Amino acid sequence: MTNEKLRGDLIAIWRAGVEGVCTDRLVRNSIALLAPDDERNFDKRDYSFEIGNGNNREQYSLSTIDRIVVIGGGKASGSMAVSLSEVLEPISRKVEILGWVNVPNDCVRPLGNIRLHGARPAGLNEPTEEAVAGTNEIIRILESLTRFDLCISLISGGGSALLPAPVSGISLFEKCELTRFLSGAGATIQELNTVRKTISRIKGGGLKQICRGKRLISLILSDVLGDPLDVIASGLTVDNKSTPTDALNVLRKFTQDKPELLLQNISLKKVFDYIESRAKKTSPFEPNKPTFAETNCEEISDKIIKQDDSTNKHFGNLSNNLSDKIFDQDDGFVRNIIIGNNALAVEAAGMEALRRGYKQTMFSAKTSEGEAESVGVDLVRLGLEMSYVGSDCLVHGGEPVVRLVSAEVRGVGGRNQQLVLSAVCELMRQFNGKTIPLAILSGSTDGEDGPTDAAGAWIDPIAWNILAEKIRQEPNFNPESFLKRNDAYNFFKPLNTLIKTGITGTNVCDLRIVIQNPNY
Question: Which of 134, 259, 304, 494 shows the smallest number of beta carbons within 10 Å?
Fold first, then answer.
């Protein structure tokens, strides 16, 4: 196999994983319009919806529905709205269809009476005034619904930032300061959203409480490992499992050894005091509300090569299969349906690897992985050990965190770029001056990796040779120094190994591919 073919396979397998969670396919798999045999003189009473996953599908007659209202927000919610609009188009002359969905600016396009509202610039994954205005419009729409209206909510990762509605007394600026602090400190998405729910009017089930329609159906694309419905986009249509005390404990975890932060950062101190006051008013013995029942679950895959690695702290046991669940939770008013997740992307990439002749091992993480640097090192180790179990391609899904250095020395990058750069550093320690035995790629399925125009990066034998020549000409071009200052983007840029896809229209965490170099 040539190095060029190795590179081609590496990228193609990753792209197949992203295409496997294409929102158009996922939406059409989850919702269908059942039409009468003769549509020439149809009446809406002759039509119905069929919504759900697998065998757990339910029909909804249009006979008592006057309006279908579509709301939502997230990185992939715009493409979800486009697909849903196409599904509903045959009944658009008999049933009023309208709505409002908050999306990144580069996802805006005309969509009839469903408004795709540009709520933030591309690459800026934090709340804006435009997002607040859009969220207020969604709230207004939900409050105007009647029992003759059906509401369909489209939720995907990024919804927390795209649907901001701060509680009275907390400003948008203060909320952004809090989010930047927690993200930079390495908080997991679970920790971050636990705090967000405490200072929001619509998160933690708030959207569900506001809705006055007859029925709320929420189609959810999961970007959280393990698919906890109360965490994805901060659980907009799911009863809140966490308490203000939980949120306070998260803040204490990241500030307890830095008391000066609450003195220096007035915004952070204000939010801390607000959550602390909320926690004092809540009984410590008050049980958490249930978030969802794991009922009517459907296994999406059971394909994996076995491997005994029970001591692996990041990836667990690789004999773990891809039997992540597609949840479908119905409480009589709200039906929450997860239409896609990370395991589906891993499976799609794994099938492409198999088609290309590889003996693949597939694994989708279900819990937080820790820091990107450690995951990168472990990917190298796992890649080197694959041959012991008869495998030559690892397809892995997950999402690590990155602790940011101070802004004064910080470069540009994202968690996937940082992960691959950490793998490069480990390869340098083991194979400096030699050909590397692996090709490694890591990319975000949404096409955005940190505040950059890249989805991630890769290293392979071709790039390794370019790197060796770069270091020979510029001895100060040290991978470790780039890693320490979070400057992975500028490390991979001269190697020409940044993944640039633009917004993909989907969002199910990260996907990594590791292939053993057959030429080694």
Answer: 259
The pLDDT-based confidence of 93 (bands split at 50, 70, 90) is confident
State mean pLDDT over 218-240. 93
CA distance 513 to 41: 53
Same domain? For 495 and 387 the reply is yes
CB count within 10 Å of CB 332 equals 6
Q: Which helix (H) or strand (E) holds 498?
A: strand 498-499
- Does 72 score more than 50 pLDDT? yes
Same domain, 143 and 229: yes
> In 105-235, at which residue ranges do the beta strands (DSSP E only) sit?
114-120, 149-156, 215-221
DSSP string, 465-489: HHHHHHHHH-TT--HHHHHHTT-HH
- Three-class SS state of 135: helix
Tell me what the mean pLDDT of segment 407-435 comes to. 96
303 lies in a domain?
Answer: no
What is the C-alpha to C-alpha distance for residues 205 and 289, in angstroms, rounded to an integer?
Answer: 11
CATH, residue 127: 3.40.50.10180
- Quick one: 253 and 380 in the same domain? no
252 shares a domain with 365: no
pLDDT in tens, 244-255: 999 999 999 998
Residue 356: alpha-carbon gap to chain centroid: 27
Nearest CA-CA partner of 400 in 427, 373, 377: 373
CA contacts within 13 A on the Cβ side of 515:
31
The pLDDT of residue 409 is: 95
Place of tokens 């159906």: 217
Which tokens go with 253? 């975890």
**CA pair distance 293, 304, nearest whole angstrom:** 27
Nearest Cα to 495, choosing from 452, 460, 520?
A: 460
- How far is the C-alpha of 74 from the C-alpha of 81, rounded, in Å? 11
356-399 pLDDT per residue, tens: 999 999 999 998 899 999 999 999 999 999 988 899 999 999 99
**Model's pTM, two decimal places?**
0.86
Per-residue pLDDT for 303 more than 50? no
Asked whether residue 94 is domain-assigned, the answer is yes
Count of alpha carbons within 13 angstroms of residue 15, beta-carbon side: 10
Range of the domain at 206: 22-281
Residue 44 has what pLDDT? 66
What is the per-residue pLDDT for 73?
A: 97
Name the nearest CA neighbour of 366 among 462, 226, 175. 226
**Separation CA 216–CA 413 (nearest Å):** 39
Q: Give the single-character DSSP code of 332.
A: S
- Rounded to 5 degrees, φ, ψ at 517 are -80, 110
In a domain, 295, yes or no: no
pLDDT above 80 (res 330): no
Is 61 a member of any domain?
yes
CA 93/CA 360 separation, integer angstroms: 49
376, 370 Cβ separation under 8 angstroms: no
DSSP state of 73: E
Tokens representing 424 are 């490069």
The CATH number for 406's domain is 3.40.1480.10
